[in-house]
Amino acid sequence: MGKSAKHIISYIAAISLLVGATVQLVHAETQEQPIVELHQAKLDQMLAPIALYPDSLLSHILIAATYPLEVVQAARWREEHDNLSEQQALDLAQEQDWDPSVIALTPFTELLARMSKDLVWLQSLGDAFLANEAQVLTSVQTLRSRAYVKGNLQDNQYQNIEREKDKIVIHSVERETVYVPYYDTRVVYGDWWWTVHQPIYWRTPRHYAYHSGIYWSPRFHISSGFFFGGFRWSNNYVVVNHDYRSRRSNHRYNYRQVREYPRWHHNSHHRRSVKYQTSQNSRHQRGITSRNYQSQQSQSHRTKVISGLKHKQAQHSRSEYRHKPSQNNKHDVFSKQGTSSNSKAFKVDKHRTKPERAYNSQRSERYSAKNEHVSRPTKAVKSAPMAHDRNKKIQVNRKVERTSSSKQQHRSQSSMRKHTNGHSNSAKHKGRTVEH
């Protein structure tokens, strides 16, 4: 008995140590992490099309956004089972290994398809919700308050609006019934307060009914097991009660009861193979667009632009040495004309004296230097008028050369005539002397 008692005591001690270690790990996991401040303009832009949804539906959308792969799987599954009713789809989807909030969205075919198609919006929403849950819910209340002030969020036959201090709660009027609102985000909130980041707008389906500035979907009759999620607006976090899903009582969304539900925690199992945006501990809080994000992006963009300009400048300097004239380039045509005229000038200079040849060669070198300066691509804007002036100068030079060459020919001809006349006169003089 003594040995068995010792073994039992040792087992109990080992179990207590394991329990203490797990408690410490859980406590370490649940410690508050540094909150990431999200980009408010992008957050309002992202939440604009869903901020006026009923609380029960909105809570499922925010939770399901953290599991984007399962949302895509659920949308494809719903397309394959489009012949099922809302309640049948909800009951049959229980067999899938998906998060309960993803399963809760299976009756809403159009909403689920829209979420799966816009994957960038879906993943951004999930990352923002994991990074700063309180700021997301505060933005939802800000959007609701603006719509309420503009008179576009009121009680009607589809929804009830409750106010708890400065918080607005939205729930369906009928029991076990959900209506999905679609609205123009550019109108319902009034003048949008972010100029760069305009609100996301979803087109309204044709078969929706218009009432009080909002289009309403047909009625979705769903059992009370759908209403297991909601918000505790006083603390700005989402609450869920998965035990409530098994109930089949005739019940609707009751905020006083829902706010007492336990707080929701992210389950990494349903994240599947989708990577988180940043490395994180087991609590899986994710930081996305912080205030420093834009400065980092602008700085990286600036460095890329500067490096690109330097690369282009280096290529340009290299191309100056490898420049080859083409027939399509007007500047090269002007340079060709200049070189051809200069060659003609050199031919004419054969008959001139040495000082004139040196002067003309220097002038031709000046013109060639100007042509090279104009043919550079950096002076492309001023090359056309300079080339026009150059052509005029070349034409003037040609005329001068022609006149000079004609004068020289005239002089040579006159000298030849004089020489021949001189020879003829001398011959006549000799003849005369002989006769005498």
UniProtKB/TrEMBL annotation:
Protein name (record): DUF3300 domain-containing protein
Biased composition (Low complexity): 405-415
Position of the signal peptide: none
Region Disordered, annotated ranges: 264-436
Composition-biased stretches (Basic and acidic residues): 317-334, 363-375
Organism annotation: Paraglaciecola polaris LMG 21857
Composition bias type Basic residues, residue spans: 264-274, 301-315, 416-436
Alphabetical list of InterPro entries matching this protein: DUF3300
Pfam families: DUF3300
Biased composition annotated in UniProt, kind: Polar residues: 275-300
Domain of life: Bacteria
